[in-house]
Each structure stands twice: as structure tokens, then as C-alpha cells.
Fold this sequence. Notes:
By secondary structure, chain A is an alpha/beta fold.
Amino acid sequence: GQAVGEANDDEEGTWKSAACWHNCGGRCVNKVLVKDGVVIRQKTDDTHLDSPDFPQQRGCLRGRSQRQQVFGADRLKYPMKRKNWKPGGGKKELRGKDQWVRISWDEALDIVSSEIKRVKVNYGNEAIWATGDGEMDKVLFENGGCTKDYGTTSWGAWMWASTMMGVAEGYYEVGMNDRLDLRNSQLIVLWGLNPAWSSPGSPTYNYLQAKKAGAKFISIDPMYTDSAEVFDAEWFPIRPGTDHALALAIMHTLLDEDDPKTNPLIDWEFLNSCTVGFDENHMPEGADPKDNFKDYLLGTYDHEPKTAEWASEICGLSPNLIRQLARQIGGTKRVALLTGWAAARINDGEGWVQAFSTLGFMTGHMGRPGRMTGVSVHRAAGNGGPWLIEQGSKGYPAPKENAVTNLINHNEVFSAILDGKFHQKGEGERKANLQFIYHQYNATLQTRTSINQGIKAHREVEFVVTNAYNLTTNAQYSDIVLPVTSMWEREGGLLGGNREMIIVHSNIVDPLYEAKSDIWIAKELMKRLGKNPNTLYPFSEKQAFFNELATTNVIMENGVDFEPLVGITAEDIKAWGVEGKPQKGRVPIAELIERGVYQVARRPGDNFGHIAYEDFVNDPENNPVDTPSGKFEIYCETIHEESKKGWSDIPPIPKYIPKELGYEDTFGDWKNKDKGKYPFQLYNPHYLRRSHTVFDNIPWLREMMPSPLFMNATDAKERGIKDGDTVIIYNDHGKTLRPARVTQTMTPGVLALPHGAWPRFDKDEKIDKAGADNILQAPISTGLGTSGWNTVICDVKKYTGKPLTEDKDWEQLIVFPEG
Amino acid sequence: MTQIGFFIDVTKCIGCKTCVVACKDKNNLEVGRNFRRVYSFEEGVFPNPSLSHVSLSCNHCDVPTCIPNCPTTAIFKRAEDGAVLIDHDKCVGCRYCEWNCPYEAPQFNEQLGKMTKCDTCFDLRDAGEEPVCVTSCPLRAIEFGPITELRKKYGTVSEIKGMPSASITQPNLVMKIK
């Protein structure tokens, strides 16, 4: 007998480059072994030897289980409709509970198109709401337009406030230096930043190289994270939403202790040449000199100096620790002051963005080697700078502009349905009569605002349709669900990753069951709406893939110019069966597709490094930033003026205002420190089981990552909660269950509920069992329209009902198990 | 014989379990069956806690307790490299090895009714590759090779607090710990 585990003996088949296309921020090489139309194994980057300067782009546990998503038993197989659906709704209250009936594509598309027409005739185009972005937008724009939504999504208050004051928001523009320069930092401050959980792939490994080069790490976070552990960071446990107060106290300490000669903690030259608004002598034109930041810190006019003692009461760190932190940040020569967006995903978050940036200005940790202040997340986690590979274009014509101007803030999408009105930013109240929801490429019902309010809204409108490949929450509450192909079943395409690489993914298998691509659905709907599909899609999806490859450029050795990445011959064009011209390129098309990735080789001293804001800091007069003053604006009139068009007033300087549903609101009586009805703060860390909501259904990942509620051991003991107990977490917006993970790694008074679980309700729909984070979310908007997911208050207690079984043992959501 | 073994850098591990999933993928392991597992430990008291994660598979021990306790002599140490393997022609799925292994290495396959375990990806190794846990680790915290070489490079630590004593089976495991 042969000695075996269960290796796939006799493996034949072909390795292909497969997409891992989710919104985790990382991009990793994912290859799959295809045999007889099925993927039997995966692997990651083995396209070149691995080294810290030129690392392989290794995938995470989610990428490694991608085949369970594509070939899962819970894939949606056929178009389907809700049993009791009728034109105009038909027992709308049964959405989410009704039975599903298999229908043909023709019937499904006829229903969707006739409902589009009916709702348009009865209520106008404004009544149609297409959520998120995607191909269906294009169809609906051609059809006279539709209502759209917008918001701050992952950015939180970084979305708009940052650019108004002249700093990068962290995605389109990046405020951190590149990863090789990070090794020049002596101190790396991770402020609300846990790459080990939030940025799998290479970022944590890249940070480790900085540690190896001698950097000390600090972690300011409500949780002692795996990043803090692996970087040996000094941990400063902080309450969610109080970072703003801490930053002010750090700056007050710097001001208090700075002596340019004996104890230089402040970079006065930087403040003088690169900023406006710090003191009364550097105010922008027209501003009241008394409104300067320095006098606010000192309490000159409001008689409240923003001392370490003042902040301690709010943020929870002792005054001594705050001062020690200030001395480290101000007194170390080369500091990387890095934050995630999470700390700004709070109500009234704009002031924190202003305060954090101002700390960078004061210490001058910007625009110089080893020195940086900014956001380090998503595609630029641990590695800032412009793209070294410019992804090409598919070449589809631009769709019509949307003729409907209604734009609903994410926090009001469901109340707009329920209350019939919303706040049109910059204008005021508008009436809304939304009757048709098209969920295309998003998880709106889970990731926008209160889930319970969202479900109510979904049962209000006349029609809901979703494109999906699993029974997502959007799909569950729909009338019609159209099964779409996963990226593995499409023609192939490009995926930009970190700045140094691009993934080229191929078709892996034919569409499964009756799934079709979004573009195919869009074309069919165009036909049924009496439009010519060729106006949007004049060529095939294969041609689009080819166009994208042909127009992709890669940086040249000089670090300035770009050249085509892909070499294409006349024979290639013939073999592809597409239109195009031969071109010279760095890698032949066939080789690139086989390899599946192109990564620019890096080494210290190459021409691809990046120091954020270097030109501006070196010569601010000749390289102004994009603000009215041309400088970083500590006093920012733009933010203040823009806030008048939004939801609540934002002062021009980062004045501390208690955050709506922040720490102060956990008290019934703040002055006497009596706790209130909801004594806990709760936030939503990104968690390795999911990329936002995606992957929550994957059995392997449910086993690996149980998605518990993280709570401090003392808090748990006081409430009689033991590790593993089922607890109920609740507030005015909903109730949800989770097993408790009782730990010393959580700040007391703070709960962490991992982001993105798909809700599963008990029979009477009162309690969610899955720990869906937005069950507890208040549907409110503040400032410029920021979504405050990390400002939630609630209570928690031991659940007296039937304890939860482990998520891995839950039944999958399979609609037609018979096949 | 050149005895093989694993090196686990506990100081680099973030507990992401990519190694476990890569192993599941390679070996087609259903929920509940894991040839590699990550054990997490927490110590200390707020605000000074510490975390550690230890990724373990079979340690292909020098004194594997699974072998003498197998009533059908199905488990053996492969001559050329000391990998501990199971002969499925002899295994009757009695699970004695599971009870005897301090590391939970043998994993029962309900469908086959037999024990299964880490085989060091010997098919990949025959093709000149490394075991998938090694090539999957985003933090480069796992190495595989002749144990004498690993010990020369990394020392002889083979247990941390919370783990079974290395004296029981003499595992071919080296760890870097804080």
C-alpha cells in the first residue's frame, strides 16, 4: 500500500492565473490547477525568487479558499423570483422570508425591464435607485437616469476633509513614503492601524523589514493587535473616537515642553513655510486672528488648555503616558506617523483628520526620508507612492450622464425610502419616492446603515432586483435575483494591486449553471428597454480584455517615463480574434498571461522610491498644494464652509467636539461619571474571515475565523460572562448574538465586533445571530456626510436563550439543493 | 537517513492561518480536518498583554507515540527522511494514534474511515518544491528541511508555554520565540 495523506495523485491539468478580485485592498497572485473544468488546487506567487526587496505577492487564507466561493454548494444556479411577487410588489412584507421559484432568463429579464418601465411611467426616473456602481448604472442612465447614493465608505472623514486642507486622502493620493523608505524611519506610529488583520498579503511583511532595520513601533488602538505583537510595539490603549482629544493633548505637550535650543520638539520652520493657521501671525486672509490653533490649544480665549489631563478624561490614557507619547513623536528625528481610515470612520470625524495632520505639520514629519504623516491602508498599506504600472482601459464608450440629480447620502438611503425625503448636499431637503432598487455590485443592505431600517425600507418599495452569485443579504430581500458569473468564469482582465504590480487573470472555467456576466445582463436589458446595446458595448468582452492589456504601461528604469507593458504581434491578434495593432512591449502577451503577474523589481536606491509631499516641503512657494492658500491649512475655511452644506458645523481649526454616540454618550451624567443606558463603545475591526462582507459564507474561513465579540476580561467578569459564552449585544437599533472572546487585549469599556457578517435572524426577526455589525448602527449623518461606523454605543449581557452553535456548523444558504 | 523537520518563527506569526487553509486546499480537507493547525496563546493582564500563535503540523518525531500505539502497524517512519506516514492498506481507523499524539497531528477522515495526516507534501518535494505551508506563509515564518540544518540555524527550542513537553516524542521542530 502506498503511504499517502490525500495528495491529489496523478495530477494533470493546467495552472492558470485566477482573479482574487475583492475589496480587501491587497492584490495577490492566485493560481489554480484546472482539471476537467474544475479547480482541484490553488497556489500563490512562485513566479520569481522571494526576497524582502522583491517579495513574492503571497495570498492570504481568503484567496487560498477562493475555489470554495466559485464552486460552493451555495452558488446561485438560476434566475429566480420570489413566490408571492406580483407587478407592483405582491406581499412585500414577505421579502426575506418568501420561497424562491426558478424562472427562465427570458422571464427574469422581462420582469426587470417591465418593472423599470412601469416605475418610470408611474413615478418618474427618480423613483429608480441603483445602488453602488456597476454596469446597471449605464443601462439606467441610457434610460433617463436614476437616483444614486454616495458617502465616505472606508475613508470615513478622510474622504473630503483631508484634501480640503491640502493632504492626501490615502487612496487616489497617498501621504506616506514608499516601503523601502519606511526602513529609514526610527519610530513608526501605527495609529488605529492593524495591517495583520486589515491588509493581508505583503504589507505586514514590508513593515517587518522596517523593524529589522531598527525601527521602534507604537500602536495606538483600542485593541492590542497582532500587528502590535509582531512589531513589538508599545501599546497605547485608546477609546474609539477619542483620538482627536489625544492628538490635541500631544500637541499641547509639544508646545508646553518645546525649546528650540535645549529641547526642540516642534519644527517651527515647517509650520512657518508650509502651513497657515497655526498662530495669530500666520492666519489666512480674512480669518479672525483669535481663531488661530495655538491659542485654541493653550486655551487663551476659551480658558480650557488642551492639556494631557484634559484629554486623559476622554481618551483614557494617563497624562504621563500622553506626555511620554508626545516626547517620542516630537523628539525622534525620523518618524512615520501612520493612521488607518478606521479612526476617522466616526461621527464628527473631520476634526480628527485635521488634528492628526496638524500633528504631522508641527513635528515636520513630512516630505523627508524616513519621515511621513498620512494614511497607510488598502492599496497603499505600508507602501506609498504613485502607480508604477498604469492599468489600461477596456475602451468601452462613456455612458450617458445621469439625468437624475438626486444624490442620497449613505446614512439616509433607507430613511429616504421610509420618510420620503432626504438632504441633498449643498441644497437642502428634497422629496423622494423610491420604488425600485437595483442592487448591482455592492452590499448596500449590510454595509450602509442600520440593517433593520434597511430591511424595513426593502419591504416598502415596489420592486427589488439583485445581481449576485450567492444569496447575499441584498439578494435575500429581493423579488428577482439574477445569477452572475464570478471573475473566474469571465474572459479575464487586469487587477491593480499595490503600486509595484499588476495581476493578469484568465478565464478559468465556463460559466457555472445559468450564470451570466453583468455585461450580458446589461445588454439584454438594453434590448428590452428599446435601446441599442452596442452604444454601451460595441465589442466583445474578449476585445475589452485585449484593449486593457494593450494600453497598460509600465515605468521605465529612469523612474519617469512609461512604456507599453505588453508586446503584441500580428499572430497574437489573429489568435485572439480581436481588432488591434501589433506593438512592442516589455513582456510578450502570451508570457504575461501565463505568468499572471508583472511586478516591478525594487532595490534600495532605485528610481521608483517615493517621498510624499517632497516637492512642496522643499519649495512650498513654487510647488503649492491645492488649497486657497497654497499651503497646508490648519485653519481651513473650506471645511467650515462646506460643512454648512452638509449635516453639522465643522470649525475651521480642529476644535474638539464630543462625537455623536462617542465615549461621552456612554454616560447618563458625564460630569458625575454615571454610566448611561448604553455603557459600552463598540467598533468594527476588519477581520480575516471576510473582505468586508465577501467570503462570509466560505466553510473553511468560518472554521478558521469564528468571528466572536472581543471584550475585556474585567468587563466580562463583572457581567458573569465567560470565554465562549453566547452574549447578546444590543441598543435602540437592534440586537445581535455572538460568542464572547474574553481577552486582556481589549480596552475596558470597548467591544470589537468584526465587520461584515451576513445577518441571520431568528423566526420573529428580532435577534440577529450572526453578529452583523450594522445591526447596531444608528442611521445618522454628521459633518460633511460621514458614515460613523466606529461610533456605536450599546450594552452586552450573557444570552439566556439557546447558546449559539459554531458558525462553521451552520447550514449554508442553498436555494435549490436538488441541483 | 536525513531526518526532516519544520522551523516555526513564532515571533513573525500573526495567526492568519493561511498555512492551514493552503494545507486544506492541497489535501482537500473538509471542515474539521486540519493537517496543520494554529494554536493561539494569550498572556499578561491589561494593559500589558501578549499574544503568540504557533503553527503546528505533524512533527515527524524521533519517538512518535503514534507508531507503537498503532495496533495494525500502519504508521511508519519513512526510511529516507524520517517522515511519519500512514499506510492506508493497514489502517483500520481505530484512532489510537489520535489519542496518543500530544500534537493532534493524526486527523480522522470520516469518509475513508481512516486516519490521515501531514505527509510533508512529499509529492511536491519530489517535484523540487517546498511543502505548501512554507510557500504560503505571508510572513515567511515557516521553513522545512533537514532538522540538523534547521537546528544549526535556529537553535533547539521545540516547545513554548502551553504546548506539550518536547520530551514526550522528541519532535523534529525548531521554534524561534521571544
